[in-house]
Amino acid sequence: MSLFIASLNSGSNGNCYYIGNDTEAILVDAGISCRETELRMARLGLSIQQVKAVFISHEHWDHIRGLPVLAKKYHLPVYITPQTMQQAGLYGKRLTTLPFQAHQPIQIGGLQITAFPKLHDAADPHSFIVSYNDVTVGILTDIGTCCDNVVEYFKKCQAVFLESNFDEVMLDKGGYPAYLKKRIRSMYGHLSNDQALELFRTCKSSDLTHVLLSHLSKNNNNPLLAKALFEAHAGDTEVIIASRDEPTAVFKISGSSVLI
To answer: In terms of Cα–Cα distance, which of 40, 73, 67 is closest to 55?
Structure first.
């Protein structure tokens, strides 16, 4: 009774996360092209025929770019809030869309998906947990601050895609204009390595087996730096970088998680 998870891509150039059991799966966000989604899933040995729905966290382009083609080609229902739908400009795209309510679980086969509000500079942003029997995986990215919702749901997870977007020193010394640095650091921007680490260090469950550091900035972070920072506090939790250039491996999340 396990969940299988993989990041197909994670970063400002596109985000797409796979979570499934033996018979069905969902995607959270569809920010890479349909063709690239197909290629990356095939490379990992994942069947796109098992994908039963797409859940959209918010309207930014790096989360919806591949959605219209993917959803139409595979006749996938898209779970999305009306505000996100409006801001994404998806009305008139002839998609099968279904709304979701915060904190109200949705059942997709054996998978239970629960959305919750977060702070981010979008119309109606949400993050998700996906549960199957006694296993729960969180997809916690594009978060400006660790609000009560983030803390509550993070504590439930055996594995989590956790944003670790920027290093404070690199952002300070980098070439971004002041207004953009302020936006990134704001409570509606992104989590820094230090903010993500504080959540991880103080709130992780004793059975959190995998943390996949996600949405790393190309210009304001270093994967090796972020990974080393977390590994110093990880104990038995495996730390993986979710790349902006390629998919991760597929991980099997259960009582004792293993890479497959």
So the answer is: 67
